[in-house]
Design goal:
The complex is a heterotrimer of chains A (431), B (288) and C (311). Chain A has 431 residues and is an alpha+beta fold. Chain A contains 18 helices and 10 strands. In chain A, a hairpin with a 2-residue loop joins strand 4 and strand 5. Classes of the chains: A alpha+beta (431), B mainly alpha (288), C mainly alpha (311).
């Protein structure tokens, strides 16, 4: 009898301890936070900080997808449409997020981020992620364009830094005939959203509204025609590389670092690459200036912010918010700041400007101060509407046609405006 | 006799010239994979590089080497891509051969209602490109949980290859004279056994031909794979090529390295099978 | 093996015994048919349904039936019609050029006695490239600033030669034709080589005895024997080029200004970037129908050609 009791007791003890440890293990088994992020080059440095958050919370982070901007946009759109969202945190961007709102893929962040949490972020940038009064994306870093110009070539040809787009055009046209073969006064990215963005930027400077308050297209106003004509005249005079209508960001940067461009507008984010003597022939030979302004007194300021959002499908939204708070914290942003990214927290700005001043290279500090100034005054995103990309698909081939001389500026833009209006009507914007 | 030699010499020169032209881009691809990115695509061009090394390959194969600043090779899951591409292509080829040959046998050896119509429909399904199919297929696969799975890709690629396989094999099977088959039947085999024992062994060349095309099609397919696969669980090489293109900077050297590695299995496969291929096409294609 | 390659073999006649076994063909066809139905037919039917709605990638919840609206739109869309025309032109030019080149190269190669295996493998290398990769390759070869071609010209003329191959009319179109021909002529060569090698040596010897020159032999013996091969090659390749997307999308993206816009580059942009999947689906259908009609026509020609050869 005693033997069997002992055996039963031992068995019970074993069972209980198995349960206990099992329970402990279940509690210890890390829960996973899944993310879909932008990848490539410098974007991934930040992700090396993630283990710190994992250690702090005991969670595991799994980046289930990494792709470039357009790839991840396509993925998010198709995922939201098919209901196949298996990640909690996703990349987002001021130019793209309105599509995701419409697709019902992301949730507003106001309930997860208090005023205290948002206090340190640059206000204009934060605002660019708001729609219908709600905040949808948390800023990671932003980019804005400024005028880059070669100081040596400006000196050689006696040029002055242009303050308006008229001066910009005149300077380019003046210097091009004097330049050797294969060197160009300026260039622009010439296709897809890149071209639409530049066109939108310059035409806004000249007073044309891409969409008016009622979402009717207005880029065929005189301001838009003037902008398109500028592109066309520069191309026709050979002041831009002839292959430009095939360029996107990488191509224009390549021409710049090859030393073949006198001046052009470019994103700040390229700075460290441009100053790297082993990669860039323009290293140490250029300066920057605020974008030129147009007839409407508006300075160029096409900008965008890379950010993070929480998916509607996420079952751990609070945890996701906590992760986002970590990945957009001052520490995390310092990591990106050191790589040359323009971060979105004011506190970090103060520090990096101080560091830059100490570096001894005047341009390091100047560019940060200018960037900060532009962020506060000129920051302008494309129209925050899901139809931005569809309208771009209509506009950019026509702007290309204008540049190449296939269509006249006014006629071409009128045609584009009519098509965009038809599309917006079909999507229910004019009730 | 000397006239013929001269003519053949001319043919040899022409062939050599043509082959050089066709091989030049391949050569350029291989060379580019050994040079630093800054020497690729610059003006003035760098023809003979002093900086040739295997770094981009080492990075890709996981030796922890980072060739240069914007090289992406280290982070590319080469092993996963290799596995996914090989498994998908081999299984899809095998299944396409089986399904296609069975269908071809049915079409060429039996007369039944709607035979011609069905055969034609099967061929015409080939007019549908992966692009048109990709999104609806994506929705369908999502409902069935087949997205981002190798099984899903295998099913899709098998379907993509069955029409051509069936068509090619129908020609081969039709070639075989009835007398052979009758001999087996007289010996007491059923029709099916006759097929397995007599006809199938004779269409080896046809299987080789179909196999090559099916493999290459699956190996190089992009449109469907880019939508169906999303993570390293199912991503294949063609989709993986885009890992080397960044939004702002691309690593061409790395992409060339992976492309060269991508070519190797295809070359091996074709080398092994190409002899059979030629014999196969000789017999099969014409008679349709 | 009794298969007779010297004389064309008659198509097998079907015995009455065969007609009794009706179940077997159905069983044999079932797997293939089931797979095709599942992977191709059902999705395409779904796509057909979508083409009658206003489905966009971002407005799933408010999907609405719109009847023939999308089809009406596409017939009034000058870009679509131009792309359709341009695709037909693209197919016609590339496939015919590939055909001619393939014939000439195959003929030349048939005279080379040694090293056929290696030659064939080298020749087939372009076929082993993923079309995506070919797109990247040729995009860089034709780049105006630093492309291989312009760099070669730079070496020849000793000063920068900036020809924007991918931009100017008609250079842009020519570049995508060149890339496609590079990639696919080997396919033609292989097919025709097979055909040439299958021509009985007796016929060739006979013509030589009659005193025929190389060109006469080519035109009067080789070409006619190859005509069924040509139709097959035409049918297969035309369908393949009609599906062209990867190559052109990487090289030019259909641009600039729609100059190299083909059907599928346009449809892809409409469906994915512009989110208008329903319109894209309707365009897909029209295009596939046209491709089907064309293939049917080619098959008819093939049957005629076979009859002529007494097959």
């Amino acid at each position: 009898m005693r033997k069997s009791l002992v055996i039963v007791a031992a068995f019970l003890l074993l069972a209980v301890s198995a349960f206990a440890t099992g329970g402990q293990e279940a509690a210890k088994a890390p829960k996973v936070l899944k993310c879909a992020f932008i990848g490539g080059a410098n974007y991934e440095e930040l992700y090396k900080e993630i283990p710190k958050w994992e250690a702090k919370t005991g969670m595991k982070v799994e980046i289930v997808y990494k792709g470039d901007g357009f790839q991840i946009d396509k993925k998010l759109k198709t995922d939201f449409a098919a209901g196949l969202v298996d990640y909690d945190v996703c990349w987002d961007h001021s130019s793209f997020f309105t599509q995701y709102i419409k697709a019902g893929g992301i949730v507003p962040l106001d309930e997860y981020f208090s005023a205290e949490d948002l206090k340190d972020f640059i206000p204009k940038i934060l605002d660019s992620g708001k729609r219908d009064g709600k905040l949808w994306i948390m800023p990671r870093h932003f980019d804005i364009s400024c005028l880059h110009y070669r100081t040596d070539l400006f000196q050689q040809y006696g040029l002055k830094v242009p303050g308006t787009w008229d001066e910009f055009k005149a300077t380019a046209l003046k210097v091009q005939p004097q330049l050797p073969a294969g060197v160009y006064a300026t260039e622009f990215a010439g296709k897809e959203e890149a071209l639409t963005g530049r066109f939108y930027e310059v035409s806004s400077c000249e007073g044309a509204q891409y969409f008016d308050k009622k979402w009717k297209p207005g880029f065929n106003a005189p301001g838009g025609v003037k902008a398109a004509t500028m592109f066309r005249d520069l191309y026709k005079a050979g002041a831009m590389p002839p292959g430009m209508t095939g360029f996107v960001w990488e191509d224009v940067a390549k021409n710049w670092v090859a030393g073949n461009i006198v001046m052009y507008t470019e994103w700040y984010g390229w700075y460290s690459y441009f100053q790297d003597p082993s990669a860039s022939k323009a290293a140490g030979l250029f300066d920057i200036a605020r974008q030129p302004k147009g007839d409407a007194g508006v300075y160029g300021g096409w900008a965008g912010q890379h950010s993070f959002s929480i998916t509607k499908a996420s079952k751990q939204k609070k945890t996701a918010a906590d992760f986002i708070k970590f990945i957009t914290s001052a520490e995390s942003q310092s990591v990106e700041a050191n790589l040359g990214f323009l971060v979105t927290r004011s506190a970090v700005w103060d520090k990096i400007i101080a560091d830059a001043k100490a570096s001894g290279k005047a341009l390091d500090a100047k560019r940060l101060e200018l960037a900060q100034y532009q962020a506060a005054n000129d920051f302008r995103t494309p129209p925050l509407v899901a139809e931005w990309l569809p309208s771009s698909d209509i506009v950019y081939p026509i702007v290309q046609a204008i540049i190449l001389g296939d269509k006249a500026p006014q006629a071409g833009l009128d045609e584009a405006a009519a098509k965009v209006e038809a599309m917006m009507k079909e999507r229910g914007y004019y009730k | 006799m000397s006239m013929r030699h001269r003519r053949h010499a001319g043919a040899k020169v022409a062939t050599g010239l043509v082959l050089t032209l066709f091989f030049l881009p391949v050569l350029w691809l291989i060379l580019t994979s050994f040079r630093p990115n800054i020497e690729i695509n610059t003006r003035p061009p760098v023809w003979l590089s002093r900086n040739l090394n295997f770094d981009s390959y080492l990075a890709l194969l996981g030796f922890g080497v980072n060739p240069e600043r914007f090289a992406f090779g280290e982070n590319v899951p080469f092993g996963a891509y290799l596995r996914n591409s090989l498994v998908t292509a081999l299984f899809a080829t095998a299944f396409a051969l089986v399904l296609g040959t069975l269908a071809a046998y049915a079409f060429s050896s039996f007369k039944f209602r709607g035979r011609n119509g069905l055969f034609l429909t099967l061929m015409l399904l080939r007019a549908i490109p992966g692009i048109a199919l990709s999104l609806p297929l994506f929705f369908l696969f999502t409902r069935l949980g087949l997205t981002d799975t190798l099984l899903g890709l295998i099913l899709a690629y098998t379907a993509l290859n069955v029409p051509f396989t069936a068509w090619l094999m129908a020609g081969f099977i039709g070639e075989i004279p009835e007398s052979l088959n009758d001999a087996a039947l007289i010996d007491g085999c059923s029709k099916w056994t006759a097929f397995l024992r007599v006809e199938l062994p004779l269409v080896g060349p046809g299987l080789a031909a179909s196999g090559i095309f099916a493999f290459l099609t699956s190996w190089n397919e992009f449109a469907v794979a880019s939508v169906i696969s999303r993570t390293t669980a199912a991503k294949t090489f063609p989709v993986g090529l885009f890992d080397f293109t960044g939004e702002f900077v691309s690593d061409w050297r790395g992409m060339c390295a992976m492309s060269v590695l991508m070519l190797i299995p295809a070359v091996i496969f074709v080398l092994i099978v190409q002899r059979q291929l030629l014999r196969g096409l000789t017999l099969g294609a014409v008679k349709g | 093996m009794q298969a007779n390659v010297i004389q064309p073999v008659r198509r097998r006649r079907l015995s009455s015994k065969v007609l009794e076994e009706r179940r077997l063909p159905v069983l044999l066809l079932l797997p293939a048919a089931a797979l095709m139905a599942f992977v191709v037919v059902f999705p395409m039917l779904y796509s057909l349904y979508l083409s009658f709605t206003n489905f966009t990638l971002v407005s799933q919840s408010s999907i609405r039936f719109v009847g023939l609206h999308n089809y009406q739109t596409l017939f009034r869309d000058p870009v679509f019609l131009a792309a359709l025309w341009r695709t037909v032109l693209y197919i016609t030019i590339t496939v015919n050029l590939e055909l001619v080149l393939g014939l000439l190269i195959a003929n030349a190669m048939s005279h080379v006695m040694r090293g056929q295996g290696i030659l064939r493998t080298i020749l087939m290398m372009p076929m082993m490239f993923a079309p995506i990769l070919v797109g990247f390759q040729f995009k860089w070869i034709f780049n105006d600033q630093v492309g291989l071609l312009n760099n070669l010209l730079f070496e020849v003329f000793r000063r920068p030669v900036i020809i924007p191959w991918l931009i100017h009319k008609p250079l842009g179109f020519i570049t995508i034709v060149v890339a496609e021909i590079w990639m696919s002529t080997p396919f033609m060569v292989i097919i025709f080589l097979a055909g040439i090698l299958s021509i009985s040596p007796d016929i060739m010897d006979a013509s030589e005895v009659d005193g025929a020159t190389e060109w006469q032999k080519f035109f009067h013996v080789t070409l006619p024997s190859l005509s069924p091969f040509m139709y097959i090659a035409l049918a297969v390749r035309s369908l393949d080029v009609a599906k062209a997307y990867d190559l052109v999308s990487i090289m030019t993206g259909g641009g600039p200004a729609h100059r190299t816009e083909l059907i599928w580059t346009y449809v892809h942009r409409l469906a994915f970037t512009s989110q208008n999947f329903a319109l894209g689906a309707s365009m897909s259908y029209i295009t596939v129908l046209i491709a089907v009609a064309f293939t049917l026509y080619l098959f008819q020609q093939l049957i005629k050609a076979r009859k002529v050869r007494g097959l």
